[in-house]
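Z., the sequence and structure:
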Amino acid sequence: MGIVASGDGSLYYEVHGSGQPVVLLRGLGRTVKHWLGYEHQLAKNARVITIELRGMGLSDQRYRWRDDLFANADDVIKVLDHLRIEKAHIAGISLGGMVTLATGLKFADRVQSMVVMNTSIAGQGTLRLSPKGVMVLSQIMRFRDERFHAALVDVLVSPSCDPEHKSELAKAYAQIAEMHGFGAVTVIKQLLGAGRFLVKKRLKNLAIPTLVVYGSDDQFVPNINSKKLAKLLPTAEVFEIAGAGHEITADKPDELTAAITGWVGKNSIT
């Protein structure tokens, strides 16, 4: 774990394992703690760098109202520079997937390959959040209420997820919020940044190898977004994980690890 100075604050990151460097980026309102150990599973096959997006958890670099997702891309490069990593694979889920794309667009020479999971972009004419997801997010200021985390888990995982597993996830999310805060105002700023992420035309020229992953049972971001996104990227391959919801790491971690590990191996320079 470490801290990198950034602007008027700092960015928190963790490094696990060895091998090909893979940056893991969480989504809306999430901290590195929300990987809930998944980073250790992936780190059996790679050098995994998890980065706390600005304004979240232990990263006290402010997310300003004018910031966009390219500001988050700047943060990714700051951490890579600090670790003296010239080029890395970038993998992000949901909002983290948008930051992955932003990093590829702004710093193509620093990105070996990308894995974009359950992600959407603005301007595609699709519903980016499900009605159920919008309803849960509308209650975001009640993040200290256990019922909020239970409702959040319910929309993030597959409908077939075991009720006991859902309960465990809700408790874990509540504990993280209690210990590290939830950053509700930052989430609103992130949503605004996501709304301004109009990169449809630019993606057609993004030649970085990209794996677009989506869960067949995503109840939060309709997977039509992933399918349309893949068509915009000239080198994209699409991979569906059957039975996974939005939180793929909670539903199908082994399948996701196999997909990422295989993609990294296929697109690494030895």
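Residues 163-180 form the longest helix (18 residues). The mean pLDDT is 92.

Let me know what you think.
H.
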